[in-house]
Design goal:
Layout lengths: L10 E2 L22 E3 L2 E4 L11 E5 L2 H13 L4 E4 L8 H14 L4 E6 L6 H9 L2 E9 L5 H16 L3 E7 L7 H14 L3 E5 L2 E2 L5 H7 L8 E2 L12 E2 L4 H8 L5 E3 L2 H8 L11
Helix pairs in contact: 1-2, 2-3
């Protein structure tokens, strides 16, 4: 179980103080609330809107992660949230971890994020057996192939067939997308019937992102920018949003399946003098 099933281009994270061990900042004083744990850092995906895209992936030793969770449960904690960007970065590692968690016999309730790739029936069965109660599936509409949407369908079906609640976190409204394309995605979600679809059409721009370069090079896209894109650092919140809240609400017709995220708070944060922690990417 000490061997990490990763390819030679990936790396092992150095050991860190374990949460709940009592080692300095890793100590745990209260058994209330939800604890977080981490299995890896970095992401191999190439999402144009994400600052973590194409970063080196480093995995923690599985026994260390299990020990961390065990330390927390010994102090009375039972609810956990995975702090990875997405759990299924590497399918082999995910299954090794789930098997180790099952063997440890820790009775926990935990939630995680998945991306539409790297999954099989064994993974979902083990997630159900180890106490996963909520999956958030991160989905975006930027230039995706049919296999991507096929993976979404399989993941929603697998989660529901294993009794796990699944929410789709859907980012859409990218440059050059047409409203007819959005209708296709909405109809797909209506057919799949996850527990909820949370839609965000406000895309946070950072200077290092590919999407920021695409927008900055095309004057026709600048009309959809909220905030000052000329700021060389983009430290103050700047968003791209080509689909109005009113138009999106009209398309959704108050269907309980859908929930619109981030619009009002993002707009307020992008205004001069805006403050707070805006939602969205």
């Amino acid at each position: 179980m000490n061997m990490l099933p990763v390819n030679p281009n990936r790396y092992r994270l150095p050991r860190m103080p374990l949460v709940g061990s009592g080692d300095g900042a890793g100590g745990l004083e209260s058994a209330e609330g939800i604890a977080g744990f981490l299995t890896h850092q970095g992401c191999s995906s190439s999402c144009i809107y994400c600052s973590e895209a194409d970063t080196r992936v480093s995995f923690r030793r599985i026994p260390d992660v299990i020990s961390e969770i065990s330390n927390c449960t010994a102090k009375g904690l039972r609810r956990f949230h995975l702090c990875d960007s997405e759990f299924n970065e590497d399918l082999d590692y995910s299954i090794y971890f789930l098997k180790a968690l099952k063997e440890a016999g820790l009775r926990i309730d935990w939630a995680l994020y998945l991306k539409p790739s790297n999954h099989n029936r064994t993974m979902f069965r083990l997630m159900q057996e180890t106490g996963v109660s909520l999956i958030t599936l991160t989905v975006d509409s930027w230039k995706k192939c049919p296999l991507y949407w096929g993976d979404i369908e399989k993941i929603v079906f697998s989660a529901r067939s294993n009794g796990i609640k699944i929410i789709i976190d859907f980012l859409t409204g990218f440059p050059y997308e047409q409203e007819e394309t959005l209708e296709f995605y909405l109809d797909l979600f209506r057919r799949l019937q996850p527990d909820s679809v949370e839609i965000n059409t406000c895309i946070r721009l950072y200077r290092t992102l590919k999407i920021t370069d695409i927008i900055a090079r095309d004057p026709a896209l600048l009309q959809h920018v909220i905030g000052n894109i000329e700021d060389p650092e983009l430290l103050h919140p700047v968003f791209y949003s080509q689909l109005s809240a009113e138009r999106l609400e009209e398309k959704l017709s108050k269907e309980p399946l859908f929930r619109i995220e981030g619009l009002k708070k993002n707009f307020a944060a992008a205004e001069p003098g805006g403050s707070g922690c805006p939602e969205g990417v």
